[in-house]
Write a structure and sequence with these properties.
By secondary structure, the protein is α/β, with parallel strands linked by helices. It contains ten helices and eleven strands. The chain has a nine-stranded mixed sheet, sandwiched between helices.
């Protein structure tokens, strides 16, 4: 399983350790690194055949956390299998593989044993992450070493339940104007493919030669058994175990509209601790938030879309406040 590990820019010895999973299924975590919450991004300009230029961002979550950006399931990004007869990846199988990966990674990096650990990601990862949290929790209790200092999880615009997610689109469209074509079509995505597929870049990333062909941002042809029909039961189990969770929704996301996300959160039937209220940045409303008795915080990002790239600075501030235990 291929990954990119970036240390916290603050205090890596004590700051939280995150694993970030991009959705799809079949989308590389490199997308999250350069388009959503990582310390690097591409300068968007006309491509002239050279290696695209990267620059440092100001909104990276690595300002306050160590992050493993993981390509999963196998077949995504630069992750590969040597076994030509390997089973088709599945949601539940992916949860087990990620748990196995994390324990092996920590065994090789014991300096991070005690860091608070969170499973994070967006979109289709919303189906798998609650199952990963459950898998890690079970492993900690039953058998597995090293122990993972699991504290909770963070989901951005999560795919959760097909009925709730899909049916909410009509409700959402009824109450909202559509976003512009210019915002929706974003021209910078190809730069990641140009950059990653340069031989010099692949050598620098230590990609094993011959294991994968051309890197693509999202491998839509990847066969995955979507055997988790709804992740709501996993959310219930994780709530019982007492794990913190932050659920983020862009209020202009029509793929998994916030109204559908609100519906499944309400279906958990936990009492409200802090009612629907705005959260602010510099005296401006940046979104709205509700806190529930199961340590779950729901927050919208004003003007946000399906991924964090639409409002990266606002999402970064939201994450930094939550991860440090501050009020939003």
């Amino acid at each position: 399983m291929f990954y990119y590990f970036i240390k916290s820019e603050s205090n890596p010895e004590e700051d939280p350790l995150l694993v970030w999973l991009t959705g799809g299924p079949g989308c590389s975590s490199f997308f999250g690194l350069v388009y959503e919450n990582g310390p690097l991004a591409f300068k968007v300009k006309a491509y002239n055949g050279s290696i695209p230029t990267l620059f440092s961002t100001t909104y990276s979550w690595t300002k306050v956390a160590n992050i493993i950006y993981l390509d999963q399931p196998v077949g995504t990004g630069f992750s590969y299998s040597k076994n030509p007869l390997a089973d088709i990846p599945s949601d539940t199988g992916s949860a087990k593989r990620v748990d196995e990966f994390l324990r092996k990674w920590l065994a090789k990096h014991p300096e991070y044993f005690s860091n608070p650990f969170y499973v994070t990601g967006n979109s289709y990862a919303g189906k798998v992450i609650p199952a990963i949290v459950h898998e890690i929790s079970n492993g900690n209790c039953i058998c597995c070493k090293p122990q993972i200092n699991l504290q909770g999880y963070v989901l951005g615009s999560p795919v959760t339940d097909p009925d709730l997610d899909t049916n909410s689109r009509i409700q959402f469209a009824h109450g909202m104007a559509l976003i512009s074509d210019e915002l929706y079509e974003l021209y910078g995505y190809k730069l990641s493919e140009y950059w990653v597929n340069k031989e010099s870049v692949r050598r620098a990333l230590k990609v094993v030669e011959g294991t994968t062909g051309k890197w693509v941002r999202c491998k839509w042809s990847l066969q995955v058994n979507k055997d988790i029909k709804s992740s709501i039961p996993y959310h219930k189990k994780n709530s019982i175990e007492g794990y913190r969770s932050l659920i983020i929704s862009g209020d202009h996301d029509m793929l998994t509209p916030y109204v559908g996300t609100q519906d499944w959160i309400r279906s958990l039937n936990y009492s409200i601790i802090d009612k629907w209220t705005p959260w602010m940045i510099h005296d401006q409303v940046a979104g709205y938030t509700t806190t529930y008795a199961n340590k779950m915080t729901f927050a919208t990002v004003k003007g946000g879309g399906h991924t964090l790239e639409y409002k990266p600075e606002e999402s970064s501030i939201l994450f930094k406040r939550w991860i440090s235990g501050q009020p939003l």
